């Protein structure tokens, strides 16, 4: 079973691209979705203990948590030490289930794939990208997003050029939905034509 890592900086169109793979019948695991589930479940009491006042009615208040950790590297490391292992457990359960179901491929949608070393768990990596002006316009159009917050997020992520340089495949999402969908299908064809070898998850 091929494990394709999907990543890209904020505002690059990663979630939309992940949906395109799902539309093609490929099982997709979203790290962001896993975090949302964990913030309303297993991770909530652990985060409240580490960052008092950030949980309301058993659910992490993302605004309060953001205020506690954004721009604070030590606090961010503490949060990641809580959340990342739990997300990894969900990911492993997902991969096992996909393998048992006979899937020939899965996509791991991981925002900080290179930053966390997750590429070692993937056979190939796809990076979604767009010109800086397009990225900035997309992100600043989001409710509650400010220039300062956007710049802080960018500073925490590997630069787009470095991600593209390390990728096996790149999709320029600024070209539009249909060109991106065609590229997704091309990548699937290329991956399925690869010689059979042991998956990164088996090594």
TrEMBL record:
<keyword id="KW-0963">Cytoplasm</keyword>
<keyword id="KW-0173">Coenzyme A biosynthesis</keyword>
<dbReference type="InterPro" id="IPR001977">
    <property type="entry name" value="Depp_CoAkinase"/>
</dbReference>
<comment type="pathway">
    <text>Cofactor biosynthesis; coenzyme A biosynthesis; CoA from (R)-pantothenate: step 5/5.</text>
</comment>
<keyword id="KW-0547">Nucleotide-binding</keyword>
<protein>
    <recommendedName>
        <fullName>Dephospho-CoA kinase</fullName>
        <ecNumber>2.7.1.24</ecNumber>
    </recommendedName>
</protein>
<keyword id="KW-0067">ATP-binding</keyword>
<comment type="similarity">
    <text>Belongs to the CoaE family.</text>
</comment>
<feature type="binding site">
    <location>
        <begin position="11"/>
        <end position="16"/>
    </location>
    <ligand>
        <name>ATP</name>
    </ligand>
</feature>
<dbReference type="Pfam" id="PF01121">
    <property type="entry name" value="CoaE"/>
</dbReference>
<dbReference type="InterPro" id="IPR027417">
    <property type="entry name" value="P-loop_NTPase"/>
</dbReference>
<dbReference type="GO" id="GO:0004140">
    <property type="term" value="F:dephospho-CoA kinase activity"/>
</dbReference>
<keyword id="KW-0418">Kinase</keyword>
<keyword id="KW-0808">Transferase</keyword>
<comment type="function">
    <text>Catalyzes the phosphorylation of the 3'-hydroxyl group of dephosphocoenzyme A to form coenzyme A.</text>
</comment>
């Amino acid at each position: 079973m091929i494990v394709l890592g999907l990543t890209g900086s904020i505002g690059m169109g990663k979630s939309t691209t992940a949906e395109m793979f799902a539309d093609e019948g490929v099982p997709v695991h979203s790290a962001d979705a896993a975090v949302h589930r964990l913030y309303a479940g297993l991770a909530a009491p652990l985060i409240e203990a580490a960052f008092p006042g950030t949980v309301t009615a058993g659910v992490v208040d993302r605004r309060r948590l953001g205020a506690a950790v954004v721009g604070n590297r030590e606090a961010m490391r503490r949060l990641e030490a809580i959340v990342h292992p739990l997300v990894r457990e969900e990911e492993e359960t997902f991969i096992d289930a996909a393998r048992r179901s006979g899937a020939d491929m899965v996509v791991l949608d991981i925002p900080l794939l290179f930053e966390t070393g997750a590429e070692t768990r993937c056979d190939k990596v796809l990076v979604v990208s767009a010109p800086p002006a397009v990225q900035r316009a997309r992100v600043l159009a989001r409710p509650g997003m400010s220039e300062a917050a956007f710049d802080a997020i960018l500073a925490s992520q590997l630069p787009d050029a470095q991600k593209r340089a390390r990728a096996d495949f790149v999709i320029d999402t600024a070209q539009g939905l249909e060109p991106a969908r065609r590229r997704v299908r091309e990548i699937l064809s290329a991956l399925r034509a690869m010689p059979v070898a042991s998956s990164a998850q088996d090594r």
